[in-house]
Amino acid sequence: MLGICRGRRKFLAASLTLLCIPAITWLYLFAGSFEDGKPVSLSPLESQPHSPRYTASSQRERESLEVRVREVEEENRALRRQLSLAQGRAPAHRRGNHSKTYSMEEGTGDSENLRAGIVAGNSSECGQQPVVEKCETIHVAIVCAGYNASRDVVTLVKSVLFHRRNPLHFHLIADSIAEQILATLFQTWMVPAVRVDFYNADELKSEVSWIPNKHYSGIYGLMKLVLTKTLPPNLERVIVLDTDITFATDIAELWAVFHKFKGQQVLGLVENQSDWYLGNLWKNHRPWPALGRGYNTGVILLLLDKLRKMKWEQMWRLTAERELMGMLSTSLADQDIFNAVIKQNPFLVHKLPCFWNVQLSDHTRSEQCYRDVSDLKVIHWNSPKKLRVKNKHVEFFRNLYLTFLEYDGNLLRRELFGCPSEADVNSENLQKQLSELDEDDLCYEFRRERFTVHRTHLYFLHYEYEPASDHTDVTLVAQLSMDRLQMLEAICKHWEGPISLALYLSDAEAQQFLRYAQGSEVLMSRHNVAYHIVYKEGQFYPVNLLRNVAMKHVGTPYMFLSDIDFLPMYGLYEYLRKSVIQLDLANTKKAMIVPAFETLRYRLSFPKSKAELLSMLDMGTLFTFRYHVWTKGHAPTNFAKWRTATTPYRVEWEADFEPYVVVRRDCPEYDRRFVGFGWNKVAHIMELDAQEYEFIVLPNAYMIHMPHAPSFDITKFRSNKQYRICLKTLKEEFQQDMSRRYGFAALKYLTAENNS
């Protein structure tokens, strides 16, 4: 103890010396800058030899001052070296053979930590300055389950990526839903120097399911207790985060705190900032045992190797079993059990300054954690109210959160220069494909779009649907952008079956869509609509990529390939299911055609039967789709025959045919080379014909196109000659590809095109 005190005194004396010497130096310089009570100007102009005020004595004085300044600076450097040598004697945890480290000046933020630590009542620690090597990998563990938590994780990850300067390895304990969503997201995000591993949360349920838990996080809120058992045995340390965390600094600063752990400290935690564990919130309030105010587990530093040696698994289980005999259940999930263990073993905790977990629930002491914006490190929205929480500075915190919520994630694909990254096969293949393109080609941008990887967030909202047991279920498939959102409610009213939608949005637009959907009673009442966000990138609308994304995540045996501007007739869903059986789609390659019509009226009394539709057709209220601008697109449907047909009839493929069809889920994808306007559906129907699909027109089915302003892409097609030239080039290349794949049978497509 005496040695420690002496060490602290030496450190304090050295620190005071460092602070005082510069001050004395500047006093000396200030005093020396006066001559005979008058200030001596240090202007370069006035110090020239030809200046009348220039004297030999003042020159000597200046030289003397310069020598003294150099001596003082040398003394300061010597003192710093002595301090660093003294600190270097303490054991340091290092990984890898990297030379450069982040010192206090380079961003570990220790000076800010010291200042804010004083604000929060956390005493500063003497000893080793925390260091994080430049290319050291930082490990982060997050428990995530369900659709909403997956969205929250994205915002958390954005805030971490925004500030980070180190490689990251995310360990995600996820259920099957979150794994599907986040695996696709990270795979399409392609952020350099980021690795993601998944651990099946459902397999861990048996480890904690015996613990009754009242917290809204449910069983997944207990899974941080089993991380020592779940994470790889060679992983020594990890930062554990809740999904409702936002970082306001480089996570390397928090990782550096591991170097401050001493003795048997294995848990880094911030004190709980509410009065929950003090037990005086209401009459008969009885919280779990805790040390003082207890600790919040929204941010945890875990020394996994030491915890395993201490038999952490046995430690928390025995504590939980003992306390549950009296408490019956947990109120705050894993946090209650962590605190009960700490109550019995306070030596396990390294207390973190409270700016590492500023807790924004109602009635907390969070305001004591910061004086200025620069003091903030981690914000924790740990109230069920989330952004609606009561806090003096909640508007500032909300804006900070919204910044990352709407931040363009594509901008976070930053290389970490000087740090070797693991080989990514997808990234290497993409670079190879792009390198083979000719950048001088006038159609380069069109060709490049085919290989662009768009960040994709599947199932943006809650989705829940079990396909019908009779194996006749049909999913409506469509794609849209922000300017077509108003069609969603109308389609939901017309089609009661499952829907798979791909939405092409920016990050900010995705949040606007979320607010729109959550404010719609119609959309919120439907759990069988899957919304897949494909984030904007590039100058073209990737229409066929969007269709492929929506098709890929259809969960029914059959798909109705529609467009967002069409309203299906009432009852079409049930009619198609009956037609599937009637035409034996399960065992034959058929494409059932739903005849398409259009109206030029924004307000339409939608026809409730074929007879009513024919009447409106005769009166000029309705028209066959695109009859006045693109008759070839739907002419083969043979509308004249359809008027009197009572049974399905077959039609033959013709050039430029692009009907809306119902097919099996295993049908070919759309060709991605076609973007924006032109030939995107035509090419797909040609592919179906090449694979010998029969086109069968349904006699009692119809859909109606609703009017809207021209899209940006069709405007480009009409006004830009180069756009049309490139589209023609892509068509020719597609037809050549068809000839190579399907041989002699594909010659008719070239002939038909030449004759059209």
From TrEMBL:
GO biological process: protein O-linked glycosylation via mannose
Catalytic reaction equation(s): 3-O-{beta-D-GlcA-(1->[3)-alpha-D-Xyl-(1->3)-beta-D-GlcA-(1->](n)-4)-beta-D-Xyl-(1->4)-Rib-ol-P-Rib-ol-P-3-beta-D-GalNAc-(1->3)-beta-D-GlcNAc-(1->4)-O-6-P-alpha-D-Man}-L-Thr-[protein] + UDP-alpha-D-xylose = 3-O-{(1->[3)-alpha-D-Xyl-(1->3)-beta-D-GlcA-(1->](n+1)-4)-beta-D-Xyl-(1->4)-Rib-ol-P-Rib-ol-P-3-beta-D-GalNAc-(1->3)-beta-D-GlcNAc-(1->4)-O-6-P-alpha-D-Man}-L-Thr-[protein] + UDP + H(+); 3-O-{(1->[3)-alpha-D-Xyl-(1->3)-beta-D-GlcA-(1->](n)-4)-beta-D-Xyl-(1->4)-Rib-ol-P-Rib-ol-P-3-beta-D-GalNAc-(1->3)-beta-D-GlcNAc-(1->4)-O-6-P-alpha-D-Man}-L-Thr-[protein] + UDP-alpha-D-glucuronate = 3-O-{beta-D-GlcA-(1->[3)-alpha-D-Xyl-(1->3)-beta-D-GlcA-(1->](n)-4)-beta-D-Xyl-(1->4)-Rib-ol-P-Rib-ol-P-3-beta-D-GalNAc-(1->3)-beta-D-GlcNAc-(1->4)-O-6-P-alpha-D-Man}-L-Thr-[protein] + UDP + H(+); 3-O-[beta-D-GlcA-(1->3)-beta-D-Xyl-(1->4)-Rib-ol-P-Rib-ol-P-3-beta-D-GalNAc-(1->3)-beta-D-GlcNAc-(1->4)-(O-6-P-alpha-D-Man)]-Thr-[protein] + UDP-alpha-D-xylose = 3-O-[alpha-D-Xyl-(1->3)-beta-D-GlcA-(1->4)-beta-D-Xyl-(1->4)-Rib-ol-P-Rib-ol-P-3-beta-D-GalNAc-(1->3)-beta-D-GlcNAc-(1->4)-(O-6-P-alpha-D-Man)]-Thr-[protein] + UDP + H(+)
Annotated region (Disordered), positions in chain: 42-64, 83-109
Main location group: Golgi
Transmembrane segments: 12-31
Subcellular location: Golgi apparatus membrane
Compositionally biased tracts (Polar residues): 44-58
Pathway: Protein modification; protein glycosylation
GO cellular component term, pick one: Golgi membrane
One Pfam family recorded for the sequence: Glyco_transf_49
Any one GO molecular function term: glucuronosyltransferase activity
Membrane topology: Single-pass type II membrane protein
Alphabetically ordered keywords of this record: Glycoprotein, Glycosyltransferase, Golgi apparatus, Membrane, Multifunctional enzyme, Signal-anchor, Transferase, Transmembrane, Transmembrane helix
Signal peptide stretch: none
Family membership noted in the UniProt record: In the C-terminal section; belongs to the glycosyltransferase 49 family.
PANTHER family listed in its UniProt record: GLYCOSYLTRANSFERASE-RELATED, XYLOSYL- AND GLUCURONYLTRANSFERASE LARGE1
Protein name in UniProt: LARGE xylosyl- and glucuronyltransferase 1
Species name: Equus asinus
Organism classification: Eukaryota, Metazoa, Chordata, Craniata, Vertebrata
Gene name tied to this protein: LARGE1
